Request: fold
Amino acid sequence: MKIITTEEHFDTNKNVKEFNEFSKVPNNNPFQEKLNKDLTDADSRIAYMDKYGIDMQIISDAGNSPQVLPDDKTVDACKAQNDSLAETVSQHPDRLAGLAALPVNVPDEAAKELERAVTKLGLKGAIISGTINGQFLDQAKFDPIFATAEKLDVPLYLHPGVMTDDQKAILFDSSAYSDMMANMMAGAAWGWHMEQGVQMARLVFSGLFEKHPNLKLISGHWGEFVPMFIERLDVFGRFSELPHPFSYYYRKNVYVGPSGMLTAPQLQMVHTEMGADHMLYSEDYPYVKMEDKVKSFIEDAPFNDKDREMMAHGTAEKLFKL
Reply:
């Protein structure tokens, strides 16, 4: 079975240095430094893919993203990162494709960079990590980014990002457990998924897909809690001014993948709620390495061959025009 994984990450040594020097947003992953070799070394990436039967990765920067650098540095940093990404992809065009980093807090520049990345560099869309300096993307200032993605017919991957210190202090710091557990609660265990679920729900209820009906968004980690609440969001969404229920927009405009959470109950739920034509496959390399399970999980998925093939590679091929 052909396998294309769609939330896989890369970095450059130059960007890591700039991030560590200038970013006001901490990277709270305690293993980040150990992961840098896998993030920056294309040869080890391809060797891993060969060993575990992964035909293609869609790669992007979501760990030390130049997106979060100060406004006077983020535009040039994103351009440099996207140039490096395009160069890496060009060396392995049959194995890798890329999603651009964007200077999101400078929306007009972000829209220009998205257009350059797609039309000049051959990247397949872009990734946006978390909220933007505490701002959700439903603010009108960010609309040029969505308008450009729709015009170019490329998807935007909405990836989690690090919560603000104030959010973390209110929601997750506790004297009942360690600081490390608080970091995990605010991050990979729960918090950043919750925030991205809120992000997506806000975008739907903001009328984003009424304004941009052909826009395509991607949500990892089985949809960041949202698929579990689709019916409830329909019930209470009647207080919105939208002409259609929440589920209409979500199932039409959003694509969902596991991001390495290769768990059977979530697989079955998302398949039921979304259908295979809106399901992608993803390992979250190198933050998660499922190794042999990457292949066996999708091959053993409890639905028909057509749907397995769709999730394994077909949806990605259509969405990213591979």
Remarks:
- The longest strand covers residues 4-9.
